Each structure stands twice: as C-alpha cells, then as structure tokens.
Amino acid sequence: MKHLFILSFILFNINLFGQDTLQTSLKPDLSKQDELPENPMIDEDIDKQADEAVFKVVDEMPRFPGCEDMEGTDLEKNRCAQELMLRFIYTHLKYPPEARENGVEGMVVLQYIINTDGLIENIEIIRDPGGGLGEAGVDVIELMNAQQLRWTPGKQNGIAKQVQYTLPIKFKLESGKERRKQRRGKKN
C-alpha cells in the first residue's frame, strides 16, 4: 500500500511539473514575428483550399439532372429533380435476396459529394440495417455515374462548389396482404 501511494504521488508530480514545462516551452516568441519572410504562395494555397472545400449548404444546392430546361421557379425545378431522383432510385434499386429472406428492413443513409462537374464521389454508408441494404444503396448511387448522369452542381456566390449530399433510402418489404391488394387494384 505504501508503494502504491508513493507511485501515485510521483506520477502526480511528474504530470504536474511536466505540464508546466511543456506549456512554457510551447509559447510562441512574438518578438521574432517581424523576421518571418513573406510568402506569396500562401494566398494561392488558401484560394486552392477554398476551391477544394466541401460545403454542406450552398446558395444553390445540387440538383439531379432532367429539370434544368423546364420553365418555372427554382422551387419547382428542385421538386422536379427530387421526383426524378426518387423515380431513378426506386426503379433501379434491388432489394438484396439475403435481406428479403431474413426480413431485414430499415433506413439506409448514404452520404456523398457532388463535385463541381456534377459527378458523385466518396460514397459512404452512414447507417446500414444490414443484410446488404447499405451496399444496394451504394450500387444505385454508383449507377448514376455509370449512366453518366451529371447533376447540376451546387453553387456558392455563382461559382460551382463541391457539396456533401445526404440521402436516406427506405427499404420495406411488402406483406402478403399488401401484395394481394396491389394485384386486385391493378385488375380493376
């Protein structure tokens, strides 16, 4: 017990005094600030970083293709683009057999970047209920690039920017009753 107390006392003192030494040695010497050489590349580096930055919100958010030439307000174009995107997703989405067999349902959340050329990059699965649902979501998003569907890029101050986009996709199995109702509705 005596050794444990001494060890904790030593560690406490090392931590206490070590911290003071570390803090004083990391303080910048402001008297030498005038001696720093000017670097014209810094401004260019900052501009380049700003161009490569990924925004979460911009003045004009990216839009799925197909509604660019329609007449109407931006709100109407956004609604049109949302409808076309949902139609594309649910037309091409394949429910994985493993998930279907095991009754796996749920919400997949994907996050990706729409670059300044309107292509999708860096697809990540944020939420995955399992059974291959996350991968099925990624497959349908990758299909957009494979089919050369270019989004209208997001813009900030009129300049195209990379924008992070988050997309939830709901996977739900139909029950036997729902399938029978749908079949009856199609016959009538």
Word description of this protein:
- Strands 1, 2, 3, 4 and 5 form a five-stranded mixed β-sheet that branches.
- The protein is globular, with a radius of gyration of 28 Å.
- It is α+β, with helices and mostly antiparallel strands and 188 residues long.
- It has a domain at 52-173: TolA/TonB C-terminal domain (2-Layer Sandwich).
- A hairpin with a 5-residue loop joins strand 2 (106-114) and strand 3.
- The chain has helices at 2-25, 41-52, 74-92, 97-102, 133-146, 176-187; strands spanning 54-55, 106-114, 120-127, 154-156, 159-171.
- The longest helix has 24 residues, at 2-25.
- The chain starts with a helix and ends with a helix.
- It has six helices and five strands.
Looking at the overall shape, the CATH architecture of the domain at 52-173 is 2-Layer Sandwich
The helix-strand sequence is HHEHHEEHEEH
Shape: globular
Can you identify the CATH superfamily of the domain at 52-173?
TonB
Radius of gyration: 28 Å
CATH class of the domain at 52-173: Alpha Beta
Discrete helix count: 6
Task: Give the helix/strand class.
Answer: alpha+beta
